[in-house]
Design goal:
single chain, alpha+beta, Lipocalin, six-stranded antiparallel β-barrel
Length: 260
Amino acid sequence: MFKTLFAGFAFLSILSAQQTPPPDPALKDRPAAAPGTFQVDPGTRILLSMINSVSTKQALVGDRLYLETAFPIVSNGRIIIPQGSWVTGTVTDVKRPGRVKGRGELQVRFDSLTLANGVTKTFKSDLGSLDARQSETLKREDSAIKGAGNKKEDADTVIGTTVAGGAVGAGIGAATGHLGGGSAIGLGAGAAAGLIGVLMTRGPDATLTKGSTVEMVLDRPLTFTPEDLDMSKAPPRATLSDGEPPATQKTTGWSPTHPF
């Protein structure tokens, strides 16, 4: 009988151990929020929408990015970062695209988050992803946007000028009685003109366009008190009055296009 009971207890212990999931190492190292506060953990991805546009064609190191959150962030069943909160960023490096090779690169970081009531948190966060509609690609290790290549456009330029040159040369050769020679000269001239055009033209610039979306990855926890999340005194958003044209828009408080 004792052997039967011992075997039963052993079976239940094994079953309980199998049903209890192992602890998550990431949760073990995650800093805990102080009692009565709300925390957005490091590594959280926040979807942002561009308010302005930046491009390697005109951007300089130190230029600012202005964005707003495109989706709310929730913690413990409460919205901590509402949609439409403002985020600022900085251009940290600019590389113009080359004339023969080398793509344009735009390196950025995110610096601060401001809620509608003026509460601001600072950080140094990186890009996590780009809008899938963009032709640019993301170098995650550098938080850099890399412009699209233009090899196909270069090839089309050379082919187009070569064909056009050949047609012109053929016409001149026919008029002078040297059809073959004229075509050859025209083809050569067209190819040369195409190559010169390619060498004189830079590749596509890397661009973050107004309205496109990106993801920011937090590098540190953001902790908010209940007072930080009190929006009762936040200024209202700018709105259009009924029948009022956009050119005479009246604003009260902050505007999402001019947050500071």
